[in-house]
C-alpha cells in the first residue's frame, strides 16, 4: 500500500457564505469518508481546506515516517485549484496564498502528491458529503433560533 486516492470538494452557499468540505480517501481497497462544516468561507477557500484536511488525515493515520513512502493522487472538480497546485496559474488572492503555502508544506511530507481535475460527475460522493455537512449545519442553526 503505497498509493492513496483522495477525492475532495468544498462548498460555499453564497460564496462567501456558510461552507463545508467533503472528503473520500481510498487505500488498500477500503474507503473512508469525512464531512465537516467549516464556517464562513469562499468556495475556493473551502476547496483548499478540503485538501488540507485530507492530507492531514492521511499523515495522521499513517504517521510521519510512513507518509514519506506514500504516493497520493488528489482528484478535484475545481479546475482553478488544480491549475494553481500544478503551477499553471498564479495564486493572487492573499487568503488563498496562505492556504496554498500550507498545502505546499503538507505536500512535502509525502513521496509524491499529484493533483487531477475531474468532472463534477466523477466527484459526486465528495460533493454529496460537503452538501450534507452544509445541510446539517443549516438545520442545526435554524433550530437554535
Fold topology:
Blueprint (H helix, E strand, L loop, with lengths): L2 E10 L4 E11 L2 E12 L1 H25 L3 E6 L2 H7 L8 H14 L4 E6 L6 H21 L1
Parallel strand pairs: 1-4, 4-5
Antiparallel strand pairs: 1-2, 2-3
Helix pairs in contact: 1-3
| Biggest sheet record | 5 strands, mixed
Described by the principal axes of the CA atoms, the overall outline is globular
Instruction: Please identify the structural class as seen in this structure.
Output: alpha/beta
CATH-derived architecture: 2-Layer Sandwich
The tally of beta strands, per DSSP, is: 5
Q: What's the end-to-end separation, in Å?
A: 48 Å
Mind telling me the CATH superfamily name?
Ribonuclease H-like superfamily/Ribonuclease H
Widest beta sheet: strand line-up: 3-2-1-4-5
CATH class: Alpha Beta
Tally of separate helices? 4
Q: Any low-confidence stretches, pLDDT <50, length ≥5?
A: none
- How many domains, in number, for the residues? 1
What percentage of residues falls in helices of 4 or more residues?
A: 40-55%
Taking all Cα atoms into account, the compactness measure Rg is: 15 Å
Give a quick set of tags describing it.
145 residues, alpha/beta, five-stranded mixed beta sheet, 4 helices, 31% strand, globular
Quick summary:
The protein is an alpha/beta fold and 145 residues long.
Describe this structure in words.
The chain has helices at 43-67, 79-85, 94-107, 124-144; strands at residues 3-12, 17-27, 30-41, 71-76, 112-117. The chain is of the alpha/beta class and 145 residues long. It has one domain (3-138): 2-Layer Sandwich (Nucleotidyltransferase, domain 5), CATH 3.30.420.10. A five-stranded mixed beta sheet has the order 3-2-1-4-5, with helices on both faces. A hairpin with a 4-residue loop joins strand 1 (3-12) and strand 2. Helix 1 packs parallel to helix 3 (94-107). The N and C termini lie far apart (48 Å).
